[in-house]
Amino acid sequence: MKKIIAVCFAFSLFFGGHALAQDAETAKKIDPNLPKEDITKEERIGSWRLICAKSNKDGQIGPERCITHQTIVITDERVEGNPPILDVKLQIDPSDAVKKRKVMIIRTPLGMMLPYGVRISVDGQEKGSAKFTTCLPTVLGCHAVVEVTSDLLAAFKKGSEAVFQYADVNRQAAPVKIKLDGFTKSVNMIK
What we know:
4 helices, alpha+beta
């Protein structure tokens, strides 16, 4: 499990700027220190965004990798910059690409109650939880990684709404809803 977390976190950092980008040009400007990326596909599918890219490191083109994600931002005009309050990414576990096992990387803001973790429910039914693995100011958030079981995947595919709940340092629960429209099509396209 530690290997999965480490590899997924590295992959998340690699794709992290791209997942929040609104288009390919913006994605490349998010973090100039990231390895060069050639975005091969970017598509909005319902409430989800599919992003595929081929890495280009030292002139070697790597295989195409795709993620699907949804980001929820604060849209309150009193809050500067519309910061994300939740980013949910699904991808193939890079340490187990042969089996095509999927993982979910959940990013919340900094300042979370770490022992609480993230609780996941779909259409009012609790489906699991994830422990926080890292919190870094360089990625502006805390990450939790959970293996996507067949039950969790089925619930997301059949459901209409998921809730990710975490708690801030004042122990105030912060449930954040995401829509699941387009999830099935987009998750079937990740590789």
